[in-house]
């Protein structure tokens, strides 16, 4: 996969077709380099549709008032959740991420440099890691403001770690007015929530993608022939 980012031009150069030429050149470079897919976050969906891109990913935000948080009482004594420094502990997260839905369903394999970049880009974010028998089995990346507890990423390799991480989150119920989960997938499970009606869900169109090399895509991706 190759991405398109930071698209811009000088004001005096706008309207002369330069951006379109650059897009065509970028797509040709991807094809020549045997790149299968291209992703981007659009400033305008209609613009990128001219180059074969289409909206394929949604951004989902779940919001719950702190007084509606569930009480997670299930015993998770085999799992210990620890707050750790985000910038110096990303190595613990790599295998967990790779086994989670975050790396599936069109997700990305994060290179080492990307893991190093994440805490630099998001300096205000904090990290809690679940350990089972001294092995990392889950994590949550979050941020706290004066009125909000915002979850940006949560992943786990087993049910107990999932329970322990969400129990860690709900224990902060007295520290914020609202709890917000910025989810990359829309099929979150609400089995831990007492009353799912108490969750406000907002779905927004997000990322676009296009196939760069159709033959390569069909050879690499499993699909069902309905004929």
Number of strands: 11
Average of per-residue pLDDT values: 89
How do the SSEs run, as a string of H and E? EHEHEEEHHEEEHEEEH
Low-confidence stretches: none
Shape: elongated
Distance between the termini: 29 Å
Protein topology:
Blueprint: E1 2-4, H1 18-32, E2 37-40, H2 45-49, E3 54-55, E4 58-65, E5 79-84, H3 94-99, H4 112-121, E6 126-132, E7 135-144, E8 148-156, H5 159-170, E9 178-183, E10 200-205, E11 208-211, H6 214-220
Parallel strand pairs: 1-2, 8-9
Antiparallel strand pairs: 2-11, 3-11, 4-9, 4-10, 5-6, 6-7, 7-8
Compact overview of the structure:
The chain has 227 residues and is an alpha+beta fold. It is built from six helices and eleven strands.
Q: Can you walk through the features of this model?
A:
By secondary structure, this protein is an alpha+beta fold. Helices cover 24% and strands 29% of the residues. Strand 1 (2-4), helix 1 (18-32) and strand 2 form a beta-alpha-beta unit. The two termini are 29 Å apart.
